[in-house]
Amino acid sequence: MLHDLLDSLEMYRQGRVDSIMFLSLNKSALHDAGMHEEDELRWFAKELEHDGVTSELNFVPGLTTSRVTSHCALAEVPERISARSVLDAIRLLNDVIRANGIDKPRLAVCALNPHAGENGQFGREEIDHIAPGVRLAQVEGVDAQGPYPCDTIFIAARLVSAVPTGRACGASGGYSTVK
Asked: What CA–CA distance (Å, rounded) separates 20 from 15?
């Protein structure tokens, strides 16, 4: 599997392909084959000498998802969420959506905790990190709102261009685009 990724990367470097797409990869097999990074995204970033934001993007008709956190234990998610990581994910999604023809994306940012934490009753990530990340994006002119409860966020997806989600509440975590 790692050999196939290396071949794909070489074809990209040679200009023979414009992008590399793949389905889910077995992280244990990649590590057994010699990959030392946490996942293939960090591996690609290292191989391409990219030091910016990386995120998995998933596409189905009318819906695109991306993540604030990725490929870590659920217990590690809260410590990986910061206003900066939320802002970085919002910026990336906003840029991707704009590049795909939506001039003025509207993002509804998802909470991490049930009921968006209910003012700290179920966790403070929304208060301490997610809402501040949303405000930072708004200062930059991004039309981002939230955090919205993760158990109802996809209802909001019908009204906006994108939905950043957390990794808890059964969501895989990310950003969803609806045309």
From this structure: 12
* pLDDT one-digit tens code per residue, 49-61: 998 888 887 776 6
Q: What integer best gives the mean pLDDT of the chain?
A: 84
pTM of the model: 0.80
Query: Which residue type, as a one-letter code, is found at position 107?
Result: L
Give ∠ CA 20-22-28 in degrees, rounded to 5. 120
Q: Report the Cα 68 to chain-centroid distance in Å.
A: 4
Cβ atoms of 107 and 164 closer than 8 Å = yes
Q: Residue 134's closest CA among 167, 157, 163, 158?
A: 163
- Collapsed DSSP state (helix, strand, coil) of residue 177: strand
**pLDDT score, position 156:** 62
- Tell me the H-state helices in the chain: 2-13, 27-32, 40-47, 77-80, 83-99, 125, 131-139, 153-156
Instruction: Give the pLDDT confidence of 71-95 residue by residue, as tens digits.
Output: 888 899 999 999 999 999 999 989 9
The alpha carbon of residue 154 and the mean position of all alpha carbons in its chain are separated, in whole angstroms, by: 15
